[in-house]
Amino acid sequence: DVQLQESGPDLVKPSQSLSLTCTVTGYSITSGYSWHWIRQFPGNKLEWMGYIHYSGSTNYNPSLKSRISITRDTSKNQFFLQLNSVTTEDTATYYCARKDYRYDGFAYWGQGTLVTVSA
Amino acid sequence: QIVLTQSPAIMSASPGEKVTMTCSASSSVSYMHWYQQKSGTSPKRWIYDTSKLASGVPARFSGSGSGTSYSLTISSMEAEDAATYYCQQWSSNPPTFGAGTKLELK
Question: What count of other Cβ atoms lies within 10 Å of the Cβ of residue A31?
Fold first, then answer.
């Protein structure tokens, strides 16, 4: 079965960039579907951030469009999140997830990684 | 973007009690997904495409709705159902989530 695992620093300083990796096992990210980043703020609000499609195309939340980039390394079956110019408001648990078809929702999630933005 | 409003924010139910929670959309959507999240774990897809149960979800759960009004119902509350439930839409970009309904065991 497909599994997703987030990794990256748990502390980032304000104004720096946040970089996370999602390692996927059990399914090739180039074979199908879309691969997403979703975050959950303290207080539990969920925000969709963006995705990279198996074709390599990307789509981002307009609220983040100027700061976000999602890329991939197909040789390692990983995809990445970069969020620039972070502030304390970006403190959240970051999840990677897979969405299959249009009406499917986010069927698979990683365990999440808490990133704190603080000086 | 479409705003999803879930109600109630917090509720409690006794074992065996019927539970209904709602999700209201600021504009009409074609379908709704629901996720269950327990403390310290990632959300799990619970109901998708309005009324389809995800794999392993007990048959006491059901989903319904259309347009701007959707609901999740538990026919008979069990202790393991205590969790927070989130609705989510992607009829309109960007996809958005509701703030959640926290269901507690009475």
Answer: 8
Instruction: Give B56→chain A minimum CA distance, Å.
Output: 13
Q: How many angstroms from the chain centroid is the CA of residue B85?
A: 5
The C-alpha atoms of residue B71 and residue A64 are separated, in whole angstroms, by 30
Residues of A in Cβ contact (< 8 Å) with B44: 109
* Identity of the residue in A48, A107, A109 whose CB atom sits nearest the CB atom of B42: A109
pLDDT at A101: 87
Say if the Cβ atoms of B33 and A106 lie within 8 Å: yes
pLDDT, tens only, A54-112? 999 999 999 997 899 999 999 999 999 999 999 999 999 999 999 998 888 999 999 99
